[in-house]
Amino acid sequence: MTNAAYQRIVVAVDGSATSDLALGEAIRVASGGGATVLALFVVDSGVMLFDAGYYDVGQMEKAYVDSGKKTLEDAAARLSAAGVAYETRLVTEPAVVGDIAASLNEAAREWNGDLLVIGTHGRRGVRRIVLGSVAEAVIRESTMPVLLVRGKAAEK
User: What tens digit of pLDDT does each residue of 70-96 get?
Assistant: First the structure.
């Protein structure tokens, strides 16, 4: 038995600098406490809903899946190097098509996670309205504690 507050930590990864920071925080929380980390990548199927005839949806989906596999390999390498027990999961069948937050929450719940770690860009105003916020939706829908890791401010 360990004295760690969290034993099953889910971290959302997408290959961005912000998700790299979230992975680092998940490693920090898990280190020394015997926790297991699930690195989770959700393929964004929402962009594939609209076939304008200008691209091959099958090739686009393959590119997203390949990107997810590479991102999970990189996460596994970091987790292994840190000596943290881990699993990886690529979600290609979303809980709700086009809703990454719902898919993240469902996968975390299915895995019996007790903490979900996700990066956020911290957008405000019109940029948040236009681009949306996966992190905000995760918080609204989550049934477990969520740790938000703020991305570094963009240089001007």
Answer: 999 999 999 999 999 999 999 998 777
Count of residues in the chain? 156
**Residue 76 lies in domain:** 8-150
Residue 71 lies in a domain: yes
In this predicted structure, what is the pLDDT of residue 127?
A: 44
Q: For position 49, what pLDDT does the model report?
A: 52
pLDDT at 51 over 90: no
Q: What is the CATH number of the domain that holds 137?
A: 3.40.50.620
Tell me, yes or no, whether 59 lies in a domain: yes
Q: How many domains does the chain fold into?
A: 1
| Cα 147 to chain centroid, rounded | 12
Residue 50 is assigned to a structural domain of this protein? yes
From the number of C-beta atoms within 10 Å of its C-beta (0-12, 13-18, 19+), residue 130 rates as: exposed
Between 52 and 152, residue with greater pLDDT: 152
Instruction: Give all strands of the β-sheet with 146-150 in edge-to-edge order.
Output: 85-91, 36-42, 8-12, 115-120, 146-150
Torsion of Cα atoms, 23 then 84 then 65 then 129, to 10°: -20
